[in-house]
Design a protein that fits this description.
- The protein contains two helices and five strands.
- The protein is of the alpha+beta class and 82 residues long.
- The protein has a five-stranded mixed sheet with strand order 4-3-2-1-5.
- The two termini are 20 Å apart.
Length: 82
């Protein structure tokens, strides 16, 4: 099953997360199918979601992918239309 979830990156104490479509069986920071955007919780300009490809997320969801709870709440807060 494909899941749209966060993949951790960045440095110690200043993480940057990438929104990815990945197989559920792969580890959190392991192999993924496609990059779909970025989440920066430490963004100073107030824009925590960057380069979100809503069309690709919608396409993955139409193919049966599930959103993780965290990604779902982030997209809802940022008012991204799916």
């Amino acid at each position: 099953m494909v899941v749209i979830r966060l993949q951790r990156g960045g440095r110690t104490h200043s993480p940057v997360y990438t929104i990815v479509a990945a197989d559920k069986r792969n580890p959190r920071d392991g192999r993924f199918l496609e990059r779909l955007g970025q989440y920066d919780p430490n963004a100073h300009d107030g824009e925590v979601l960057k380069n979100v490809r809503a069309e690709s997320i919608k396409a993955w969801m139409d193919k049966g992918a599930a959103l993780s709870d965290t990604v779902k709440s982030l997209l809802k807060k940022a008012k991204v239309q799916l």
